[in-house]
Amino acid sequence: MKISDYHLGFIGFGHMGQVICKAIIQSKLIPRSQILFTRKDRDKMREAEKEFGITSTSLENLLKKSDVILLAVRPSQAETVLKEMARLKVDESKMIISIMSGLKIAYYQKFLGDKMPILRVMPNLCSAVGEGMSVFTFSPNPTVEFQSMSNLLFSCMGQIVEMPENLTDISLGISGSGPGFIFRLIEAMAKVGEKHGIAYEKSLKMAAQTFYGAAKLILKGKSPQTLIQQIAVPNGTTEAGFKEMNALQIDSHFQSVIEAAAKRSQEYSEEYK
Predict the structure, then answer these.
(1) What is the pLDDT of residue 101?
(2) Which of 164, 190, 208 is the last residue of a domain?
């Protein structure tokens, strides 16, 4: 079955759902006519129909017509949605993809049965510009079709890695919440430039491009340690900055930030068992 033959249904259509839908439409993977969605807010539902050119429908019709069902509601709404899906007896031939954070595969299986094909995906905000990082965790024994379709669907948004479920919480801290932390660092760099007389817009551009370029060097195969050694000339400006980073224990403090996000993800798992 070609990717363009699938029918896709979004349950929930908030910001991340819209980012994913826009990427799929722009890449022409699935025609608009084969994409359905449902959301509670009727005004926003009508707005989305106009903006994306896709059709809103009832949950029952969406479950019937869609081959791939993408769960994009908040974790607090998960139980209500999954109970309704169970009541409507969603067929096990469907492929379920969830972008809800913190909810383990066992939670979905509690409502939908342990034979239901399920994929947990943690995309991130950078998917909006085709530079996202999506972390995959499949339920046991996924079919080749499910794996292939999912990879095609999310590769239009950036890169994909597959992780065992016990590593999803720390993965969320690194790549799911990570863009937010990077935004803070870029903003901090931009503000120090502004503090010393550079126009904010120019300083922001300098900071953002510096992060972008540094990331590209690493993605092209350079190790961080090799690059650090290359740039840290003895008694140079970068080495002076590194000494201050070491004194402030920046590395360990920043790792604590990542771990705090991972801990919150673990708490979600405890809340929704």
Answers:
(1) 86
(2) 164
